[in-house]
Amino acid sequence: MIINYNKQFALKNFLIDKIKKKNIRIGIIGLGYVGLPLAINFCKKNLNVIGFDTDDFKIKKLNKGQSYIERIKNKEIVDIKKNFHATRNFSSIRLCDVIVICVPTPLTKNKKPDLSYLKSAIKKIYPYLKKGQLLSVESTTYPGTTKEIVLPIIKKKFEVGENFFISYSPEREDPGNKYFKTKNVPKIISGLTENCLRISILFYKNVFKKLVPVSSTDAAEFTKLLENIYRSVNIGLVNEMKIIAHKMNLDIHEIIKAAATKPFGYRPFTPGPGLGGHCIPIDPFYMSWKSKKLGYNPKFIMQSGKINSYMPIWTVNKIKKSFSKNKIDLKKSKILIVGIAYKKNVDDLRESPALEVIEILRKQQAKIAYYDPYVPKLYKNKKNNYSLKSIKLNKNSLIKYDAVVIITDHDNINYEIIKKNSKLLFDCRGRLNVPNSNIKSNVISL
Q: Which secondary structure element, helix H or strand E, spans residue 213, and what is its range?
């Protein structure tokens, strides 16, 4: 027993020593909007990274020194080439000292947690895991996932906290944010044991300026959901206030700006045609699912999720009502959607409300086109059975449409040309500062 203990002690200290000397190889599973920026940050610190993904398109592009994400320039990929290699060969996991899982955790059709990507990632790496490694999960998930899903698999092969180490450290990526880059955002850190936490802290110190250790992986998982449910609830509130303001013929954007002048007790959130991204539309359902398992139905959280999910339908209903008033037949109409990314100034389509608005309008036989400077093509996939290309935005193209709908207000769009040449213009973001009033205008604020 003393020999085994000494071996385990040596494994732990060997990994700690390697991390301190920056002599580690990192495996990042999932080279998406979280995994790729993380890989770049580690490579910039002269650490070697192997990126794992099942998407051959991503792998080929990255190994050629090309980025597939608009906000990440090719130069950033070229600059890390000596420290980075992408592959779909998961046997290379045995070469890694630290493995970070950054895979999607979406919802099922029934709004329940879908951990299939996480389970698949663990299944793929399991045969190649070895003693003395740290496994860190960054994917957003419900409290208890690390203990209930990850730990039971890993402990079949290792003594967690002794010869293998597991942490949960939720990502806090915000695509398009000019002010907070990944490394500047405080990093939540947790571990299944004290050794796991200690090693995880040493590892993440390589990149992040401030670390925030918490008492357990459950607490870290809960923290991530709280952050995003806070936003979901407040966005749900202003979306509902927008519906009420619209009925009262008031401009919700004017009201929000006025309320924001209060220097205490209020923080402005903006309404829109729905929520997008990987976290805010999904996290309320992850938390409510977990809460119901524990015997409590979280009505407040669920209500915000329902309101936000309703907004694309509300948006289309307002368009239909306006069409009826203007004697436009929706079934014969041509509608241009402006901006289909889930938020402005990015090319990210995850859970974008624009896609749902398009789907609803198409089902009602409207002919749809779109313009988005960040998304040149919309490919056919599981969620949409059509392919579209972004049109060229000019006077001649705009006059072809019965209506234009601004869903995502990218900063580099020429709104003046849209305003001047649209027959009907629906502004879902308050971009054009047109009050919701009886003044005659081709612009309708939604």
A: strand 211-213
